[in-house]
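Reviewers asked in the last cycle whether our approach scales beyond single polypeptides. To address this, we selected a multi-component target totalling 612 residues and predicted its structure end to end. The input consisted of the following lines:
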Amino acid sequence: MPELLDLAGIFVFALSGALMGVRKRLDVVGMGVLAEITALGGGVMRDLILNVRPAAFQSLGYVLVPLAATAIVFFWHPHVARVMPAILVLDGAGLGLFCALGTLKALEYGLSPLHASLLGVTTGVGGGMLRDVLAGEIPTLLYDRELYAVPALLGSGAMAGLYTVGLYGWPATLAAALLAFGTRIAAMRYKWRAPLARGVTPPE
Amino acid sequence: MPELLDLAGIFVFALSGALMGVRKRLDVVGMGVLAEITALGGGVMRDLILNVRPAAFQSLGYVLVPLAATAIVFFWHPHVARVMPAILVLDGAGLGLFCALGTLKALEYGLSPLHASLLGVTTGVGGGMLRDVLAGEIPTLLYDRELYAVPALLGSGAMAGLYTVGLYGWPATLAAALLAFGTRIAAMRYKWRAPLARGVTPPE
Amino acid sequence: MPELLDLAGIFVFALSGALMGVRKRLDVVGMGVLAEITALGGGVMRDLILNVRPAAFQSLGYVLVPLAATAIVFFWHPHVARVMPAILVLDGAGLGLFCALGTLKALEYGLSPLHASLLGVTTGVGGGMLRDVLAGEIPTLLYDRELYAVPALLGSGAMAGLYTVGLYGWPATLAAALLAFGTRIAAMRYKWRAPLARGVTPPE
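The resulting structure, written as structure tokens, was:
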């Protein structure tokens, strides 16, 4: 079940990467590369920081699932104009799953709840940040005006809290992931905003 | 005392990151993320290359100091127009401290003086490079027309030299840091320039 | 001989980095930094993922060769307008060598042929990606319309295949490197294209 959640996270992140490739008018190879990096980037960062060999370079599924996602987007992607909302929703789902799973792995490797949450956030946002930087855009993470890092921190913190009180296993992981995903979607839907410093006007 | 120098470096780099957030009109969350990445990025790179678990994911202060810096900038930052010089000066201070401390740690882990200096430079410039790339700018490091890598190399080389002749402890570290910082500030003040290749005109 | 191939790869990648510095009108220090990062970036990524201390921080040649390449470009670079084709050809040569050598090292560290190929591609494309991102451009790798990742994958896959059937040593490595290099050059010469998703028009 955790493996299934992990592959689900990889799948939705890979879809968001391949769709970004469509939006940037990349060919099928560029789409595949962006799908792989988006899907695997956060987990690789997590494993490098935990000082273990990255899971992405040991599992068959981690490498093949992004290729499947690329094929799906290549053959069945909707019109380009409809792509952006899908990127954001799928990205939110991947964010939630990766935050929960990254925090869990960090706790299992002995990090404190605070640092495990920080590493969970890194796992969740790392792949999307690489995707945005490689596509020549400022990461969504920074233009947090519709909240991106906050849901990531909520999901990771919830996972660390549940683990600390002895609640883990896939229902706890799923609950933490859904908390992050739900907050992210609600923030987009209701346009929740983080405050700006005095004298700062938002871009455009 | 080394811990204090380290936290001071993290603090000034975090200030420069949060101020870059103001300049890019990010909200408080984006400012905080940029502060954390600027402050911790170079040290994480150093520790990954030394193949040890990054200090940033073990210490409480490393995570909290950038948040304090973000709060200070959020509530008391001067007018946006005055932000850029402050970023550059604080960045120079962080550069000096991180070069000296990064070189020292690398020497303690058995790297040769040359390679320790190289890793010290990486420690010093890594966080600022991530800050610039994430903010959508070409890193200051590359537009070295007012010298950036040169002071970093001077400070790191001085630290490696002092260590090799048996002089270490915080006065030596501070001296190496001040050498890099002073050279950087002097280069900005007196507009010291590195040469361009023949036929190359500087960008505007 | 493998060391010689490795230094040759570092040299041509460093040339491509220094020439990118000329193209971006950087001074000699910026050129040197870009040369070092382009030449060493892919190998550092490979070694971090293999969880060993990066070779770049242990060998003298790895650090000095990019400086020599920078000096050559600084004193003898042709007119700026003629720089871009040279970057692309040298980049192709570095790509081939690094894919073959990266795959080989990954196999020696026990990765499966599939994952070793993936890490070989990472070794080959990593430095160039860093070069492009730092120079403020979208990586060549993504605008794969003249094939970039495909030759990398061919070369890495060939190396993994040869190794699996017991053929290794420098002739095998060189053959795999030439396969990637030749495919890359042929793709540029004959304008081989990867397909676009339906409804996607290429950028201009």
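The radius of gyration of chain A is 16 Å. We regard this as preliminary and will revisit it once experimental data from Aim 1 are available.
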